Task: structure prediction
Amino acid sequence: MAGDNGSVHKVVIIGSGPAGWTAAVYAARADLDPVVYVGVPKQNPSIILPGGQLMLTTDVENYPGFPDGVTGPEMMEKFQKQAERFGTKVVGEDIVEIDTSSRPFRLKTRDGSGNESETLAHAVIVATGATANWLGLENEQRLAMSGGGVSACAVCDGALPMFREKPLGVIGGGDTAMEEATYLTKFASTVYVIHRRDELRASKIMQERFMKQPNAKVLWNKVVVDVLGDEKIEGVMLEDTKTGEREKLELGGLFVAIGHTPATQFLEGSGLTFDDKGYITLGSRSSHTNIDGIFAAGDVADAEYRQAVTAAGMGCQAALDAERWLGAQGVE
Result:
């Protein structure tokens, strides 16, 4: 199906996190009649969910305008309602391929039953975000989905009351892990960095910043083989990578900091350019990609900040850039 009744959409937005919904609000108010493809729900935190990573966040306390905090799902519901108020159309399907070889762009869609169709768009805003890399343990996944004390963003969640004055674990050994662990030392009784080797990959300055904290501790040559707890995390089962011995470590929270993977797999063959980590590269002109008419916003193009507020700002930029680009093309 090409658009509605064979028409071509002015702008299609792929993704329904803060970047996607903010782009939709601005595009709708500019009379661009945006269509947001929110994706098909999937019960797996390793896959982008409709609503983005905030759907795995229990309480958001660092987004301006919510003095009492707000849950991630509630925030995304409010974003969506605001976008729909101005006429945004929402489609619960995945975009699985973009053909950029002709104009308008041809987008292949797939619904929850596997049925495929096609839609056309003059401009496309990619706002599919990035997923945290997880260990893949069953209870880790369950507690991450239920808000049971397993998270992939210490800066987002670490200051919540549920984590204060409790022993917290951070899995990882790079700069991100050190940054998150150092941040957590402000709130935790003890912060354990759990690392599979006997040395960290993080820069020396990041290591020193963490190590000098009085409640910082590194557990060398350890991997997490199980996450313990029912409603909330109670601890983890550690295995020594050299001896194979196992021991339980009691924790009140676990933060997985082993990297992120941008949701760009569906863009293979599109001609878009990516950096060495798979993030969409942007030119000096804000949200413009290397292909005229395709824009990117949020975590899919941001390996640095990965915050809701920065994603929303990028969504605003993408919508404004798309509006100006469409105007220059004579698309009204």
The longest strand covers residues 116-126. The chain has seven helices and 17 strands.
